[in-house]
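Supplementary Note 2. Why include the ligand at all?

Several targets in our set were suspected to adopt different conformations when bound, so apo predictions alone were not considered sufficient. For every target with a known small-molecule partner we therefore ran a joint prediction. The input for S-adenosylmethionine is given below.
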Amino acid sequence: MESQSTNAARVVLPPAPPGFSSDSFFEGIYWHQQWELFQGVSVPGPNKVKFLCDSAHLPANLNGKRVLDVGAWNGCFSFECERRGAREVIALSLEDPALSGFDRLKRVLDSKVQYINGSVYNLNPEQMGTFDVILFFGVLYHMRYPLLAIDRLRSVSSGEVYIETHVIDRHSWLRGRLGLVTKLLGRGVGLALRATPIWRQYREFELNATDQSNWFGPNVVAVLEAFQSSGFDIAHTSSWRNRAAFRAQACPIPPRLLKHTYEGHSANINVVGLHSIDDTLSG
Ligand SMILES: C[S@@+](CC[C@H](N)C(=O)[O-])C[C@H]1O[C@@H](n2cnc3c(N)ncnc32)[C@H](O)[C@@H]1O
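The joint prediction is reproduced in token form.
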């Protein structure tokens, strides 16, 4: 895979418009993302947009690209892609954009980003076309059907997918007292399991005491092999704490998935959505 410039070109941001008040603008919304909106004015969430874009090696220049931001929430990643020159950006997410802050940001930025209230599981190239760039940040471990989500991403991808997710490589994931075993044996266990793909399933509040929306914690090699199995070349770009980032490139879909197994049976093909993608890529 080609190496790409990861450092965002220093865009000079405009100052806040006359009469803009941060206090009233940000009031009443839960801001998940942190992003510089105007000179010296940032969306006040914990999730750092610039850090994550750099971690996944998102190019500084997206001139002419058609972009899909899956799980957009406040929308800052979508607006960042527009700022990097994308020709068209679609933000797809489950929130009401009037309540998530998306509409508020779109208005103040006079942005053209389009919001679709919908699910990754329904992505369909016949309805939406294909995308040069897809962002899939902070969504994979929220999926009860992660491989289905990846197949659906593949069905609308004609270029790259940038991924950021929770991973378990540096995370103590054995239940109960067994968790101690990993601590006692130290890094050896983690290193031994690093070459074996693992999707660790979570009960309700097991990963996060205040959030039961997490279903699976993959390790890095599980993410790599899941995307490869759907027809992506993929590289691991970065890891920190219990998170990792990746850059994937659409490639021909493996015959195993399309023809040689039960999953390729015509009764399944509408579910995974890989039947209608460009033949030149699916080979
Ligand atoms: C942890 S947030 C990540 C938000 C953003 N991408 C970021 O990194 O800051 C998870 C997002 O995934 C979205 N999401 C969860 N399940 C989804 C699905 N089936 N289809 C589309 N979006 C989904 C949620 O609506 C939420 O916006």
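Residues 32-33, 47, 70-71, 73, 77, 92-95, 119-121, 137-139, 142 surround S-adenosylmethionine (CB under 6 Å). Residues 220-230 form the longest helix (11 residues). Comparable summaries for the other entries are listed in the accompanying table.
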